[in-house]
Amino acid sequence: MKLDPRHLEILAAVVDEGGLTEGARALGKSQPSLSRTLSQLEHRIGAPLFEPGRRPLRPTELGRALAERGRQVLTANAAASSIVTKYRGGKSGLVRVGGTPVFMDGVIAGMIADFQQQNPDVRIDQSYGYAEDLTAALTAGTLDLAICPMRRDARAEGVEFQPILPGLNVVACRAGHPLMRRTLVTPADLAEFPWIAPPVDSPLYKDLRRALANIGTEAFKISFTGGTLASVISILTGSDALTVLPYSVVFMLRRQNTLGALSLQIGHPDRDLGLLTARAAPASPAAARFKAFVAKQFGGLAVTIQQHQQDMLWRGAR
Amino acid sequence: MKLDPRHLEILAAVVDEGGLTEGARALGKSQPSLSRTLSQLEHRIGAPLFEPGRRPLRPTELGRALAERGRQVLTANAAASSIVTKYRGGKSGLVRVGGTPVFMDGVIAGMIADFQQQNPDVRIDQSYGYAEDLTAALTAGTLDLAICPMRRDARAEGVEFQPILPGLNVVACRAGHPLMRRTLVTPADLAEFPWIAPPVDSPLYKDLRRALANIGTEAFKISFTGGTLASVISILTGSDALTVLPYSVVFMLRRQNTLGALSLQIGHPDRDLGLLTARAAPASPAAARFKAFVAKQFGGLAVTIQQHQQDMLWRGAR
DNA sequence: CCAGTTTCATAACATCACGTTATGTAGACC
DNA sequence: GGTCTACATAACGTGATGTTATGAAACTGG
User: N or C: which end of chain A has fewer CB within 10 A?
Assistant: First the structure.
């Protein structure tokens, strides 16, 4: 006995609403349609679903039992509809986001927390990688959004880059570091302190090398390498070590008052931090929503950073 | 967003079976049919349900979420099918059975217990009534089966009567009643004992009157009237009162050894105990099954009673 | 008991979704 | 790179589902 789940839905609606007319109205169909459908169903089953010759159509025991199942179909269907609606509104779904480790840990993780506060049904898969891997993952369709620094002129095939922050690295150290008191730090001052280096294949490592070369300090001693942002922060706060970090990361940590940035111009990398998305496949609503959220947050962040720098400048000039 | 529950079923089957081909086989449909249906569903939803360009078709997060709902639809549908199958096999449903009070309590109740032992999903609504009411209820469709005594020549309109036992009433009393020792009881012996009378509108009451008239005893004192079988038995066992009961009822109670029947010919009523069913509406499978069960039980009962009587006769003759 | 109202059943018809077979195409695997 | 398997597409027939119009039957009130 194979039944059509739609027939069960109709039966449930008619039983629950108390009549064909009401049931038809509830389902948005015509009354004769339901009448015929239920007649056919009764004929197929070979047993009456409604007591014959009763005008306010009353279900039999069997009709009630089957209506119960129809109710289950209706609720499952409604749940499915809700899932689709939420998905299309970006309120639900999966977002696979990747980026350079330090940015993800230092900046994006906080934004993800804010985003999930408002969108609890959106699942976020975070992964780490550098521009090349991220681009590959995006074109392969295994990633929805990447957040990484990228050269302004670099146009990778099949991906779209949307700059959100100018690249700006600073020399970071613990809040009470000896060099923090100086209003101006010279390259020579840096020589005596140990350095924490990012992984050698990271853009940040290149930035570090380039920054030190610009300053004129080629020889520097590396005391720690390979850790994630969390371990870097631990070591920085527990020692007088220095490292190069994106200013945005240092800025986001300002509330904890554990890290500071030296007043030292180390030269901007020729890259912008930005959002990388695949050009081919249209992003899922949740991914698009998350992307828009991140972009907006960074917009606010850029303004805040600017205000903060103005403030620091003003206080420094005083 | 209104979805077709059948599409969800198909999605669930494909996701669970791991492919279109397997899903099609599981549903008893062709592979292209599912392919097109799911394509349309994806198009309607506006989002992919399966990761594109993967050969062992792998569902997306959304696809999995909707498949979960489809699974609910499938289980509800399967449950509905099971209900129908059990209903058609008479293994489930509602049986409304009515009959004369004493018979229902004394004989049928025990059969109902046996029936429900084997058919736990069949619900039985028991009601009481006499031939006239029962016939009316049957033709009105508010009763599936009636069990009552009926004259052999009485043919009510629209109902069918199937005799199952010859009507046979006996004078009943408690097991240790003074009259029980006598091998032969005369009408005069009955005069000194009080009588329990059934309700005056019951056929049993008429039987009592007729039986006593046949015997020649018109004047008898009635000490109790109006109770159900349970109270009649209580009073019989606690006193030396007499009453008229169908022999089948006394026989069914033989195990308890509380009641006995006097060796007194009181004349058979011109009625048979039988099953009354509506001729018009075909009985529900469960009702038909119950009717067959009761008929078979009574068949066995008739044989047992006969053997018992033979046995009694033989012992009495010895 | 009768008239009015409501509620369901039936008829006739159009359309679209579904199921079929045949066939093309693209990952996957060795 | 060749082959196999699995999915997608095409073309077509049929049947179920939707519609409106209308009839019949049952509940309502006086």
Answer: C
Q: Give B2's contacts in chain A (Cβ within 8 Å).
A: 81
Which residue shows structure tokens 């613990």? A174
Cα dihedral across residues B109, B111, B117, B118: positive or negative: negative
Set out the domains of chain A in order of their start, with CATH numbers: 5-88 (1.10.10.10), 95-162+274-317 (3.40.190.10), 169-261 (3.40.190.10)
Packing angle of the helix pair A5-17, A20-27 (nearest 10 deg): 120
**Which residues make Cβ contacts (< 8 Å) with residue B309, sequence separation at least 6?**
none
When pLDDT is cut at 50, 70 and 90, the band that residue B317 belongs to is: very low
Q: Give the model confidence (pLDDT) of A250-292 as tens digits.
A: 988 888 888 988 887 776 777 888 999 988 777 889 999 999 9
pLDDT band (50, 70, 90) for residue B318: very low
Chain B positions touching A83 (Cβ under 8 A) are: 62, 65-66, 69
Name the 3-class secondary structure at B126: strand
From chain B, pick out residues whose CB is under 8 angstroms from the CB of A2: 81
Which residue of B87, B96, B139 is the best one to mutate when testing the A interface, meaning the one whose CB has the most A CBs within 10 A? B87
pLDDT at B315: 55
CB contacts < 8 Å between A and B, how many? 117
Distance (Å, whole) CA B284 – CA A46: 10
CB contact under 8 A, B123 and A61: yes
Amino acid at the residue B136: A
- The most confident of A34-43, A200-209, B178-187, by mean pLDDT: A34-43
Where are any strands of DSSP class E within B92-192?
Answer: 93-99, 122-128, 145-151, 159-166, 169-174
Of A217-226, B29-38, B254-263, B275-284, the range with the lowest mean pLDDT is: A217-226
Quick: pLDDT tens for A72-103.
999 999 999 999 999 999 999 999 999 999 88
What A35-39 contacts at long range (C-beta under 8 Å, 24+ apart), as own/partner pairs, is A37/A7, A37/A10, A38/A7, A38/A10, A38/A11, A38/A14
B54–chain A Cβ distance below 8 A for any pair = no
Kindly state the average pLDDT of the residues A6-31.
95
Chain A closest-CA separation from residue B127 CA (Å): 18
> What is the SS3 assignment for B213?
helix
> Which nucleotide is at minimal CA–C1' distance from A4?
D16
User: Would the CA dihedral through A74, A75, A78, A80 be positive or negative?
Assistant: negative
Beta pairing partners, A59: A50
User: To the nearest whole angstrom, how far is the Cα of B71 from the nearest Cα of chain A?
Assistant: 9
Q: From CA B262, how far away is CA B178, in angstroms rounded? A: 10
Question: What confidence tier does B255 reach under pLDDT thresholds 50, 70, 90?
Answer: confident
Q: Is B177 strand, coil or helix?
A: coil
